[in-house]
Amino acid sequence: MTDRYAEILPGIRIPTAPFIGTIGLALDLPDDHPLVPPSAQGGNMDLRH
Questions:
Q1: Considering the entire predicted model, what is its pTM?
Q2: Owning domain of residue 39
Q3: How much of the chain, in percent, has pLDDT values that exceed 70?
């Protein structure tokens, strides 16, 4: 991936616009806290509007 394009096959490039997809926070609680489904600690944020 270079110059805002990803080459998926030789000679075939698609434009890209990278952005953050998953955002999470460290909760002050024991154990692991998954990001799916989204909740107080964050989650999948890869929807653009």
A1: 0.35
A2: 1-25+33-49
A3: 73
Q: Mind giving me the DSSP string for 1-49?
A: -BTTEEEEETTEEEE------EEE---SSSS----SS-BTTEEE-----
- DSSP strand pairing (42-44 vs 22-24): antiparallel
pLDDT tens for each residue of 7-29: 899 999 998 877 767 777 777 88
Tell me how far the alpha carbon of residue 24 is from its chain's centroid: 11
How many domains does the structure of the chain reveal?
A: 1
Structure token digits, residue 5: 């394009």
Lookup result for tokens 């805002």:
4
